[in-house]
Design goal:
Elements lengths: L4 H6 L35 H8 L16 H14 L2 H15 L4 H10 L14 H14 L6 E2 L1 H11 L6 H11 L7 E2 H11 L5 H12 L1
Amino acid sequence: AGLSRHARSTLKGSHTATAGALTPGSQHTARRRRIICVPNLGGETENSFASRTGATKHSAAMPSKPMLTEQELKAADEQYLLKHNVQDMMGSLLKEIVLSKPIDPVQFIVDQLTMEPDMATQDKYGLSKYRRGKLMDIFGVMDKNGSGAVDYKEIKDHSAKYGGQALTEEELRDVFRDFDTSGDHQIDKNEFLAFFSRSVKSLSNGEFDTMVSEMID
């Protein structure tokens, strides 16, 4: 079957080991993250207050809801937090962050909220247990002889299968050199993970999953 645009661009233009190298194309240049909004507990601006109460500068002649006092607003906020258990949830997240000290705390919070907590644990590269496992799947596909390291021929074979004509011979050698920081002409697991930890940092988990599927499926 024809290779998708994402997979064709996976190895294209990745001469430097920077975020975005060996990742899908330009649509993945920015991280799209879920933003958690917690109600304001006082000191609201005029606009935010108007938004919450339904009042505007031009609504004097129109029927409107009664204005809430600061005490009523605070009570409503506290009721919301209690109803959704937000305070306990955020307290637990902060505790986990302090205890584990993840390299990427924002991604850690996202992962804690969207997957099993154990999968959110990060390694020394800032990769979650979930992402590390997926990257090791890619490494296993590349490491055809099971030696625990990937040589240039294995990278070339993988590129030919999943990247088509996306890279020239010179470009592929540049990519290999970016991986092989030790200069021993082998890419071990640590070099592989270190490279990809920078490459996938800007991807959401959905985008990351798409990249993985296009590199091994």
